[in-house]
Specification:
Elements (H helix, E strand, L loop, with lengths): L16 H8 L10 E11 L4 E4 L8 E8 L4 E3 L2 E2 L6 E5 L4 E3 L2 E4 L1 E10 L17 H13 L8 E6 L21 H12 L4 E10 L3 E5 L10 E2 L3 H4 L5 E5 L19 E5 L8 E10 L2 E17 L6 E3 L6 E3 L3
Parallel strand pairs: 10-15, 13-16, 14-15
Antiparallel strand pairs: 1-9, 2-7, 3-6, 3-9, 4-8, 5-7, 10-17, 11-12, 11-17, 12-14, 16-17, 18-19
Helix pairs in contact: 2-3
């Protein structure tokens, strides 16, 4: 039942559930971020069930869901994820289901959980990192300072491990302040290492040849495009890149009309990002039409200079050192 059709005096914040969400769901570095719990639905199950599914984030700042289950007598209706007496909280991209109610009524309120942007929230205090961040810093430092990694410079990418909204026209740079879980941990470690990073979207083999790296989720489904107009269609923020292995060996054919070699783009993570966009397109040119699907993979991207020009902060101090080939 949608919120317009019911009213309740129950408050997740007054019941202390926001504090529990911080303690049980978030990493310690996120524990002081301001959270908004938006009442979404009232669910009453009587001989009903809910198949396994994932919630769709409704905004770039949405990171999870909160389900408050009222202590009304019923049998069945188990929440398959993690069950408590009164509440369940989870990241919105985690699959979950409600098993069939066999007796009585299962009554629950569902809230959408959002991070409040820093410019709208009080300044929080600095907190300790998640326990695994210390073990992540050393291998990342070694990777970024290795002169055999992208020896000509380029972009080093890490696929996102959580799902974020991918509406057409979304500028993914805004996700920088909304990362969650392991994505947020990676963000903090990269920041502590002092490297330049951003959230960007990678488009592989557009029109059989070009790879692009951009800031915006692109929609090419509205009209056919000439092959020579694809740069404009991809938007002002998109740049040519060349997919390569970590050691800088190109993986794909270069566009035959490329005047200068584009910068290399290499992924550290072998699996695809959990956050991808897809858009069908029609390309004309070369006396034929090509029908395809534009796939964008949203990643955390580190810009790397050539080894002699890289500056990476030591993991065991704030001293800044230059890494030479």
């Amino acid at each position: 039942m949608n919120i317009a059709n019911f009213a309740t005096q129950f408050s997740a914040r007054n019941a202390g559930l926001i504090h529990i969400v911080r303690r049980e769901l978030l990493d310690r570095s996120d524990a002081n971020r301001q959270i908004k719990a938006e009442l979404y639905k009232l669910n009453v199950y009587e001989t009903r069930f809910f198949k396994a599914h994932k919630d769709t984030p409704r905004h770039e700042t949405m990171f999870g869901s909160l389900v408050a289950i009222f202590p009304i007598q019923h049998e069945g209706g188990e929440f398959v994820l993690r069950e408590g007496d009164r509440y369940v909280s989870f990241f919105s991209d985690v699959e979950h289901e409600v098993r069939k109610v066999t007796f009585g009524h299962r009554v629950a309120l569902t809230y959408n959980l959002y991070f409040i942007p820093e410019n709208q929230a009080p300044v929080g205090t600095t907190s300790a990192p998640a326990p695994y961040e210390g073990s992540l810093a050393a291998p990342l430092y070694m990777l970024l300072t290795d002169p055999t990694v992208l020896p000509k410079g380029g972009y080093l990418a890490f696929g996102l491990r959580h799902y974020y909204p991918t509406e057409k026209g979304t500028n993914v740079i805004h996700y920088k302040n909304c990362l969650k879980g392991t994505d947020a941990a990676l963000e903090r470690v990269l920041t502590n290492l002092g490297v330049v990073w951003n959230v960007m979207v990678f488009y592989r083999n557009v029109g059989s040849y070009n790879d692009y790296l951009g800031e915006v989720i692109v929609d090419l489904s509205r009209a056919p495009y000439e092959i020579y107009d694809f740069d404009e269609a991809m938007g002002e923020t998109a740049v040519h890149v060349e997919s390569a292995s970590i050691d800088g060996i190109p993986r794909a054919r270069r566009h035959p009309n490329a005047e200068t070699p584009p910068r290399h783009f290499a992924k550290v993570t072998k699996v695809d990002s959990m956050t991808c966009s897809r858009s069908p397109y029609v390309m004309t040119g070369y006396s034929r039409a090509e029908v395809g699907e534009l796939t964008g993979e949203v990643c955390i991207v580190v810009g790397l200079q050539e080894p002699a020009e890289r500056v990476v902060r030591k993991v065991d101090s704030i001293e800044v050192v230059e890494v030479c080939a």
